[in-house]
Amino acid sequence: MNPTPPHLENAKKLIHEIRLKGITDERILKALLHIPRHHFVEDRYKEAAYDDKPLPIGKEQTISQPFTVAYQTMLLDVQEGDKILEIGTGSGYQAAVLCELGAKVFSIERYEHLHSRAKCVLQELSYTPQLFFGDGYLGLPQYAPFDKILITAATDTIPEVLKKQLAMGGKMVLPLGSVYGQVMTVLRKVSKEEFQRTEHGGFVFVPMLKGVEKEAN
């Protein structure tokens, strides 16, 4: 689904801005142009939907800055058919990007309200990731192993449970560090216990939390 005509020019400007910041993968840029980001934000923020900045989505969570989404996706090196676990569905925007790139997406959200809203938006736009309400720290062992794992919230340690759910040769991308700032980190699983690690610049994400929060009745 393309952005509606009034938003298309803003979407093109956003893609141009992201390209200037170093995102050159045309598949990712095309996906970002194709996805109507204004569907993933609250009505009061729709005017800013195509600005390259994060926006609040409730529960003290945000839809990530488009550049950050593109950068994490680039580091993940998504290939068509990849089985990807996303920790932190949030608005559902990142899941839509992964779907656009042909991945088989499994995504967990700890906030039931955000899970429900993302499910509705993604269905409305005809994206079909498998969405789960649950604790991201536990992953989805029943669906493991995964070719790629993407963590979209800050953690100061790499969850061992998630490392075990990564396929041999698989890749994990996560913002690693304290709540005050993180380093975008890539892990590649080279053996059952061994991981190669590279670092790719500083970012600030909301913290990854344990447990779940159900909607109030």
UniProtKB/TrEMBL annotation:
What's one GO MF term for it? protein-L-isoaspartate (D-aspartate) O-methyltransferase activity
The EC code for this enzyme is 2.1.1.77
A Gene Ontology biological process noted in the UniProt record is: methylation
Q: Decide whether keyword Methyltransferase is in the record.
A: yes
- Top-tier EC class: transferase
Catalysed conversion reaction: [protein]-L-isoaspartate + S-adenosyl-L-methionine = [protein]-L-isoaspartate alpha-methyl ester + S-adenosyl-L-homocysteine
Q: Which residues form the active site?
A: 64
Give the record's keywords alphabetically.
Answer: Cytoplasm, Methyltransferase, S-adenosyl-L-methionine, Transferase
Name where it's found. Answer: Cytoplasm
Q: Which GO terms describe its cellular component?
A: cytoplasm
The yes or no answer to whether the keyword Ribosomal protein is present is no
Give the protein's function.
Answer: Catalyzes the methyl esterification of L-isoaspartyl residues in peptides and proteins that result from spontaneous decomposition of normal L-aspartyl and L-asparaginyl residues. It plays a role in the repair and/or degradation of damaged proteins.
Family affiliation:
Belongs to the methyltransferase superfamily. L-isoaspartyl/D-aspartyl protein methyltransferase family.
Name of the molecule in the record: Protein-L-isoaspartate O-methyltransferase
Q: Which organism is it from?
A: Bacteroides coprosuis DSM 18011
Protein's gene: pcm
